[in-house]
Amino acid sequence: MGVELMQMPATGRWSQPLTIFHTPVHALHQPGLLGALGGWRPSRDDPWRIHGMLGALAAAGLQPQALPAPGREVFDAVERVHHPRYLDFLAHAHAQWVQIPGASSEVHANVFAMRSPGTGYPSSVVGRAAFHFHDQLAPIGIHTWKAAIAAAHLAVAAAEVVLGGSRCSYAMCRPPGHHAYADMAGGGSYLNNAAIAAEHLRTRFARVAVIDIDVHHGNGTQDIFWQRPDVLFTSLHRSPEDYHPFFSGYAGEVGAGAGEGFTFNLPIPAGTTDAGYLSQFDRATERIASYAPEALVVSLGLDAHEKHPAQGLLLSDAAFAVMGRELRQLGVPTVLVQEGGYNPEVVGGSLLAFFSAWVAAVR
């Protein structure tokens, strides 16, 4: 179901197998145009970003294998995170949408629900789109559901490897997941792959930590675990004062109820480079170490890179190497889940920098 990496890129050997999972089904997802600045722009979540990572792995002698069709355990894990009517919406929205005369080729919301206690649930797919989208950055195309459930399958398969005793596995997920709430899509995300992996790990481990290093705050992941002490959520991201998702990811957000104190946000100013970022990263790993998790999920966004098209932050590959080394030194079984990283020319190098430092940390 996967491939164990036994050979270091260029030199050396992997001191511990690292299992990579990939599926070509991701390429079926073609997001089309996104709502932005009062108009429309092409999505950055192009299949070529995954091809860029695969190319870098291949150049290092690494050949991930495709997964077979998902089994019941995948759907069980997904259903522990996401609301049944939301899953029904994702699975059937496109087929219902294209029956509407004059409808676009992808499902978009043109109104958004003002949710409050007692909010009803519409029967119309147009109303359901309003209910289940939190922005116009996650249109549903004809194959979106198929790609989203395949990405969730990767996350569950990677978690299974760790549950089986491996120290680390990697799910090359696309579409990404950390902006997906229990019942809302947005930010190019439909199913929350990191949360699904964490929930699957929770079937055996009492405490799981999630660290999100994507340039955008993982608002969906935070919301899913907001009131829970059994999953610590930690995130480093461009400050939402002037960056998507704007309404979550502030330092004062710490969880609520039983989960108070188990959300830890580190918003970082625009233009921050390696040194400033890594000083905050040290705070994140200290918080994780103090929590003493039995397993770790990394939302492995690579879009804080200085050559990312949006330039939200300005990190080099060296910063991703430091993060790989320091996360490995936590000594916790780990599932790596791909999030953002949208420049095909550099994302593969960032991934290999992270992997190589991870392996070198235990040599």
UniProtKB/TrEMBL annotation:
Pfam families documented for this protein: Hist_deacetyl
Domain of life of the native organism: Bacteria
Residues covered by the Histone deacetylase domain: 46-355
Cofactor(s) demanded: Zn(2+)
InterPro entries given in the database record: HDACs, His_deacetylse_dom, His_deacetylse_dom_sf, Ureohydrolase_dom_sf
UniProt keyword annotations, A-Z: Hydrolase, Metal-binding, Zinc
Protein family membership: Belongs to the histone deacetylase family.
Protein name (record): Histone deacetylase family protein
